[in-house]
Structure to design on (893 residues):
């Protein structure tokens, strides 16, 4: 399922919101996750200290990334892991295809990896006639529906159990109309067990890659990464260059932050530490750039590379909750997506930094202290500077700036503007006025504060 | 230039000036007066079961009982069968109960750590239907910082923190226990 | 102590009563207040839309108007935050820096600088407090539900001193109202939905008024309230604190 952009965020969000009951449900469901997160983090007195450490560890790592990458490579190779490097999404997909072809593989299972979503690996392999079975329950649901995940941790959060039931009835032949999550999950367990035990190659993501040990950590709740990786004769783990951390002891910070931020759990059910392939197994790691080194060079935006993909910023974002992940038309949606994606394609994603009120809640929940809302503001400046805004907007802004730079003109325009509102409200309150669509205009007072002050200052 | 060289060269060119790595310490972290109570509280809140045992012999008896009743039980606590290593997913898929010894438990999050050697086979703790962990009370640590101080993750090819049974909430945020891994997790504290 | 009163453009034009209340309140509390008459706008509407390159004129005008004061006070967290973070004047960098350091949002000025202990205000109504984001998360006027830090609230500290006032919070204590500057028109659907949801929570509390430290949020909420034909009114915090 590729993310072909058809509508910008505002337009897609408007369609999403038309079903208000469903929007409320989406909002409430994600707010519930935010509340679980609040409860979990309030149980940790040292929460802010952990965030600070995590942020500093990541800042340090980014400032020495080349050396940590080579240290990781060396150690991983010593552990018997094969390392591949991919400059972009296409090379990542080609490398994967090469490994598949070399071993003549047809049975592939994949656990959740946002990187492979970002690279559109499934689409690429499908075109080569190769099918990948997604094994994370949420990802399997959206895969069967030929949709993209709408959330990086909860891929099927846009769907109701009735939708899942219909999809499973069609593809897994479950009872029609049985919407019980327990029943549906059990059906998926049985269906995917067959795929696991027969799998020849398992693809996983990487949550943390440790430079010091050459090993990597994968976190899941379902156990699907392990079911695949420990069964298949080949395990391919895909990671962005920013997944590196210097030492194993740093996991003691990140693993405390990740699940609490993501779902409010104290830790994911499984935090699997892969060090060496098991005897007879082949283990590969594909290290992917795909725009990350470019982002590293953007001083204002480089710290977005600290992201550990917990999605806390999604769950807290009042805009995300009311517009759904698909409105962001990218693999990584939400506030973090809105600061990562303009780096990949500024023109196609020029709308995203504007899909925010800059309320700042995202930066507050971020476990690695990315200044997300400040970067949204900065991206807006870059996007305007690069010319990716509508000319009408530019003209309006220039006009406003001119008025505000000239106090006399401002006062004159104010007077005429208020006069305009007071005397001919139907002109202001028309269909072209977007404000007025669902809101009344402010009442125009007879006198501005400036005028009142002039009359009253000496009283 | 290969992609490897290109990526590394761009990193070198684009990285900011070196900043210091923070010094972690246990000083600022929460310690629990009663680690056992904390561990039990957290693990039970995430769907696990904690049973305090006087005597490890009780586990031995339990294993024997279940074996007798015809269930497929794998035990690596009391003896590790070398054949386990080479068993495939097709063999292990039938395992009803697996009994494993853990290295340590973490009070803060209810997780236990297992080295590969303690699993006998990497797949076992995930593919079995029900997982039973034997854990010495004395190995409980307060938090993850202490856990990593004690562990050497390079000791074996694979190791894992397990916290509770396999679960998912991917359908409407309804929690369902038993996604792909073990349907239940019981920790025997001895 | 010479205080320069900064009345943001939309307050000047559409909500003069908020400016009047702020002015009167500061006078009542003994401040030597002055309104520099050539002030216009802080430049935020352009900057938040990505056009910070066009704010040079606003910056220059702001520095020219407010250079002479010990403190600058405004009844808007959002505009104060913008000045604090973005005001620059290449010709007068020290002046701009001084302004950035001495500008205060009204409630933080009352609590931190004037250290107000008593208010003579009286407002016998049930009032829902809307926490405006820029004042809260930007200026730290109150603690934030996302953070694990001690709880406090400067606006609440003041509202507690108002006779007869019954203060209520919505269920989601500090969720954004959806105004967001030009977001309110460019993302109209989400903006209005966010506002409606805030209002619904306040209505559950059966409030008479919704108050906030920012007129921008209130203008947005008021627009929705009026369209709904609601009896709930929007009122700025300064108007309550000045109400006798």
């Amino acid at each position: 399922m590729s993310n072909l952009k058809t509508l910008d965020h505002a337009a897609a969000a408007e369609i999403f919101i038309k079903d208000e009951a469903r929007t409320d449900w989406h909002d409430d469901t994600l707010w519930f996750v935010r509340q679980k997160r609040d409860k979990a983090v309030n149980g940790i007195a040292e929460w802010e200290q952990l965030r600070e450490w995590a942020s500093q560890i990541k800042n340090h790592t980014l400032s020495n990334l080349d050396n940590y990458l080579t240290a990781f490579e060396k150690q991983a190779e010593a552990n018997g892991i094969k390392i591949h490097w991919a400059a972009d999404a296409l090379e990542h997909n080609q490398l994967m295809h090469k490994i598949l072809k070399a071993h003549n593989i047809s049975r592939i299972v994949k656990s959740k990896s946002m990187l492979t979503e970002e690279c559109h690996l499934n689409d690429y392999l499908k075109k080569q006639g190769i099918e990948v079975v997604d094994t994370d329950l949420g990802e399997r649901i959206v895969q069967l529906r030929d949709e993209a995940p709408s959330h990086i941790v909860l891929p099927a959060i846009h769907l109701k159990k009735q939708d899942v039931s219909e999809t499973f009835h069609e593809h897994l032949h479950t009872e029609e109309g049985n919407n019980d999550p327990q029943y549906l999950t059990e059906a998926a367990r049985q269906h995917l067990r067959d795929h696991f035990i027969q799998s020849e190659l398992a693809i996983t993501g990487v949550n943390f890659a440790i430079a010091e040990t050459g090993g990597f950590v994968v976190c899941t709740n379902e156990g699907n990464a392990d079911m695949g990786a420990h069964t298949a004769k080949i395990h391919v783990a895909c990671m962005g260059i920013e997944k590196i951390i210097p030492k194993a002891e740093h996991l003691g910070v990140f693993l405390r932050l990740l699940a609490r931020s993501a779902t409010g759990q104290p830790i994911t059910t499984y935090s699997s530490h892969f060090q060496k392939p098991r005897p007879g197994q082949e283990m590969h790691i594909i290290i992917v750039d795909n725009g990350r080194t470019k982002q590293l060079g953007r001083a204002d935006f480089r710290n977005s590379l600290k992201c550990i993909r917990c999605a806390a910023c999604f769950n807290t974002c009042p805009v995300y909750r009311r517009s759904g992940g698909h409105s962001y038309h990218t693999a990584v949606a939400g506030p973090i997506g809105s600061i990562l994606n303009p780096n990949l394609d500024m023109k196609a994603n020029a709308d995203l930094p504007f899909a925010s009120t800059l309320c700042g809640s995202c930066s507050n929940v971020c476990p690695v202290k990315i200044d997300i809302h400040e970067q949204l503001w900065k991206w807006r400046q870059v996007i305007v500077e690069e010319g990716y805004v509508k000319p009408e907007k530019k003209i309006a802004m220039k006009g406003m700036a001119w008025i505000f730079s000239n106090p006399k003109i401002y006062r004159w325009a104010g007077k005429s503007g208020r006069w305009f509102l007071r005397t001919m409200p139907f002109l202001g309150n028309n269909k072209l006025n977007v404000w007025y669509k669902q809101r009344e205009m402010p009442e125009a007072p007879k006198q501005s504060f400036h005028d009142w002050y002039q009359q009253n200052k000496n009283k | 230039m290969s992609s490897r060289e290109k990526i590394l060269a761009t990193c070198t060119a684009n990285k900011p000036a070196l900043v210091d790595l923070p010094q972690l310490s246990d000083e600022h972290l929460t310690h629990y007066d009663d680690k056992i109570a904390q561990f039990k509280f957290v693990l039970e809140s995430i769907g696990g079961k904690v049973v305090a045992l006087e005597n490890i012999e009780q586990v031995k008896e339990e294993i024997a009982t279940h074996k007798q009743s015809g269930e497929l039980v794998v035990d690596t606590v009391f003896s590790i069968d070398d054949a386990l290593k080479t068993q495939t997913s097709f063999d292990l898929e039938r395992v009803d109960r697996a009994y494993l010894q853990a290295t340590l438990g973490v009070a803060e999050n209810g997780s236990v750590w297992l080295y590969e050697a303690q699993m006998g086979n990497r797949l076992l703790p995930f593919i079995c239907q029900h997982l039973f962990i034997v854990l010495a009370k004395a190995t409980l640590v307060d938090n993850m910082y202490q856990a990593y101080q004690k562990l050497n993750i390079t000791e074996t090819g694979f190791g894992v923190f397990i916290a509770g049974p396999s679960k998912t909430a991917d359908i409407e945020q309804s929690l369902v226990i038993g996604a792909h891994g073990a349907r239940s997790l019981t920790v025997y504290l001895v | 102590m010479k205080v320069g009163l900064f009345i943001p453009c939309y307050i000047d034009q559409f909500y003069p009563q908020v400016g009047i209340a702020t002015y009167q309140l500061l006078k009542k509390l003994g401040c030597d207040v002055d309104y520099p008459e050539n002030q216009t706008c802080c430049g935020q509407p352009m900057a938040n839309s990505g056009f910070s390159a066009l704010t040079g004129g606003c910056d220059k005008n702001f520095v020219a108007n407010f250079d002479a004061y010990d403190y600058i006070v405004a009844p808007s967290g959002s505009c104060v935050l913008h000045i604090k973070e973005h005001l620059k004047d290449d010709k007068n960098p020290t002046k701009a820096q001084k302004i950035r350091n001495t500008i205060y949002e009204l409630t933080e000025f009352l609590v931190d600088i004037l250290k107000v202990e008593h208010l003579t205000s009286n407002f016998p109504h049930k009032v829902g407090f809307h926490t405006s984001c820029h004042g809260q998360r930007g200026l730290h006027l109150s603690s934030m539900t996302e953070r694990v830090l001690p709880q406090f609230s400067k606006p609440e500290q003041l509202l507690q001193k108002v006779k007869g006032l019954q203060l209520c919070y919505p269920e989601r204590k500090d969720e954004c109202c959806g105004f967001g500057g030009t977001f309110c028109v460019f993302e109209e659907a989400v903006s209005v939905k966010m506002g409606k949801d805030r209002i619904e929570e306040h209505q559950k509390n059966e409030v008479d008024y919704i108050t906030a430290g920012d007129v921008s949020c209130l203008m947005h909420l008021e627009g929705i309230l009026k369209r709904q034909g609601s009896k709930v009114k929007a009122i700025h915090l300064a108007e309550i604190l000045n109400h006798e």
The radius of gyration of chain B is 20 Å. The mean pLDDT of chain B is 96.
